[in-house]
Amino acid sequence: MSQGFSHSHDALRQLTQDVLEHAAKIGATACEVDVSEGLGQSVTVRRQEVDTIEYNRDKGLGVTVYLGQRRGYASSSDFSPLAVRATVDAALSIARFTAEDDCAGLPEAKLLARAPMELDLFHPWDIPVAAAIDIARRCEQAAFDVSPLISNSEGATVSAQQSHFVSANSLGFVGGFATTRHYVSCSVIAGEGDDMQRDDWYASQRDPALFTDPAAIGDYAARRALSRLNGRKLSTRKCPVIFEAPLATGLIGSFVHAVSGGSLYRKTTFLPDSLGKSLFPDFVQISERPHLRGAVASTPFDDDGVATRNRDVVKDGVLQGYFLSTYSARKLGMQTTGNAGGAHNLRIKPGQHDLKGLLREMGRGLLVTELMGQGVNYVTGDYSRGAAGYWVENGEIAYPVEEITIAGNLKEMFRGIVAIGKDIELRGAKQVGSILINRMTIAGS
Questions:
Q1: Interatomic CA distance for residues 398 and 416, integer angstroms
Q2: For residues 433 and 423, is the Cβ–Cβ distance under 8 A?
Q3: pLDDT single digits (tens) 373-419
Q4: What is the DSSP string of 142-180?
Q5: Which candidate, 298, 281, 261, 3, places its Cα nearest to that of 121?
Q6: Average pLDDT, stretch 310-319?
Q7: Is 21 left (phi over 0), alpha (psi -120 to 50) or beta?
Q8: How far apart are CA 79 and CA 72, in angstroms?
């Protein structure tokens, strides 16, 4: 399978074996290697004129060698035999001068993935540049067609990307596969002068055949921007808050960060020793499903080569398991959960309402559709972000709001979840609908 790649899968596989053989030859007690290649193109149109055409092609070799429990790492973008051997030599040289770490080393052999698994992750999009430009123009024009109040554009982009890799280690593990990720996006500006608002929308797919009409993306981006015109400030208050689905993934991301191995063994988390404890209301169910066909974060093994598996992370609001790599698990005296490299398709069980239903359930409060800044303290759980969105009265959007700050504590926010919507955006590794929280502080004028 070449599919536009410079190196075949077999060639990448042979490279990993060359690395392992050379590492053993020069005295490494263990070795792991990752070889990858990626390519793609992106086209951006702004005000119907071609703004940029970008082509990307890259490759990389990463080698980790062990001398007992001393570890060294080196990388290269040169796949020539001389460069490959030099990279392994450099990693070994680094290992000689590093301190011993009793948690360093390869995973247990019995935990490694052995059987191949077809997850339908590779759908290359061989789209000519002219066709990509046409799609981008139609997407952007649909935005301008919504209203004369759409005054400018930051552009519409069509991007087609593909990559493949092979990972291997000296315990006999060899695995790798090809993936694709394509997207169509549009960002526009509504209004003039002091009352200008921007908003955007995008769709992302592994399989380009699953894209809906690109005009719908531009149309929705325009309507979002228009709806933000004539925004108001709010007086400081406490009220319920809904995080729109694309932002709700960030809340779940904060949870994942807090119960991941690195945060736990470094004691930089607001959720220490939380295994078996109730962190959410009992209707909250969070599962990890790494083997979903075609999904964004599907994989048969993690970055350590450990086999992934389906599991319940939160059941009836109670934390069932952390997110651990081989190294972080050893630091905690536990076993890896197959999460080196992150979470794999977290699915948060949706409730019965779509976003309109959540608004009716909230009655009066704030719908947040944009967040700004990085105001999350993972040690204390304190949460404070600049925000924009809409004030809701009697279950209906009343008017747009801007220049406010929302604040709370993540521990209390998780416990204060009232409902989770079924309006799931399947864009990333965390799949969740909009989230309604019972009470947060709104700092305004």
A1: 24
A2: yes
A3: 888 999 999 999 999 999 999 999 999 999 999 999 999 999 999 99
A4: HHHHH-TTEEEEEEEEEEEEEEEEEEEETTS-EE--EEE
A5: 298
A6: 98
A7: alpha
A8: 19
